[in-house]
Amino acid sequence: MEGLGLVIALDGGRYAMRSSNVVNLLGTREELKAELETTDFTQRFDYNPRMARRQLTPGQNGMARVSPLTEEQWHQALAHPISGIVATPALGSGRIGEALAHYLGDSRALHRCDSAAVGEALAVTSRTRSPQVIFADLRTSDATSAAEITERLSEWAGAVGESKDEQGGPGGLPRRRAIVLTGPMPYESAARQFRPRRWDVTSVRAWPDGPFATTAERRDLIEATGGWPELVEGVMHLVGRGGYTRDQALERVRDAGKQVKRAVDHLEAVGLASADRDALKAWSYFFDERELRERKALCTAQAVAEAADLTTEEAEQLLGRADLLGLIDETVAGPTLDAVTFRALQALVTAEEQR
Prior knowledge:
Blueprint: E1 7-9, E2 15-17, H1 20-26, H2 29-38, H3 71-77, E3 82-86, H4 96-104, E4 109-114, H5 118-125, E5 132-137, H6 143-157, E6 176-182, E7 192-194, H7 215-225, H8 229-240, H9 246-257, H10 260-269, H11 274-284, H12 289-293, H13 301-308, H14 312-324, E8 328-330, E9 335-337, H15 339-353
Parallel strand pairs: 3-6, 3-7, 4-5, 5-6
Antiparallel strand pairs: 1-2, 8-9
Helix pairs in contact: 7-9, 8-9, 10-15, 11-13, 11-15, 13-14
């Protein structure tokens, strides 16, 4: 329940509801007890906060949208005075603030600001003793500014202790928390960092009533979408509400990924620098999608170095950057590139050959 964001832990092994609205929805103690005693729980999938992601406001045509971070990641991020979230557009950086607001509910006041408005947020929150959270979106800041702002927020978050309960004792909600959002850039920070992850064959089981029930079906889903959140959401919508069969929806995603514009958009969204993109494009030239599925297209430092005329050290650094961007799949055979990024690179190779 704590991982779901419904309750908060107090001292002495006690718990309290985060929101009075939830208490009202549950009903009286007697009604709740009767419901628990008579209800037969037949949930299709076990809830696991390590994999579960909170539902956000539906998108166009009612498409389901979910949080980039899992319930466990949000819980851990807010367990520290200040935490950093490093994300790219492809991994949902544009919806981090919305997801945080959904997770907090009305349990704490949330102040959302960019780098220019951090000072104002600090001034406002320093005048109150109620639980406060500052969410600073620093995606457009450089490394120096991000480091300075993170330090200011760290000092603010650590300037007071935890809040007191109604009797004046320890417990209740943490007084101050700060969440800093940046892109994948290195900068000096003592904040614990969290990164959104792509869906995989195991984690996608947490999708409520997902139409991909078997392991083989979920494997096909991840092979087609790479586990990228928006692509997974799109397929779920096509099958669940759009009248597509599973095979039709997956084929549509594969075909779209081979279009040059879609390929360019994807490579920009994942944050791949142009030099790294060109090097991986040279590597992808020697393989096809069948070899990728069969785990024969291994993306090792040696293979990238030979294909892109790099030193092994340069190739290792490139693959390190790609891994931080969430592009590398670790398999039993060795590391390889995710299917959608591979497809995008090959679309560019094909376009260049046809010129």
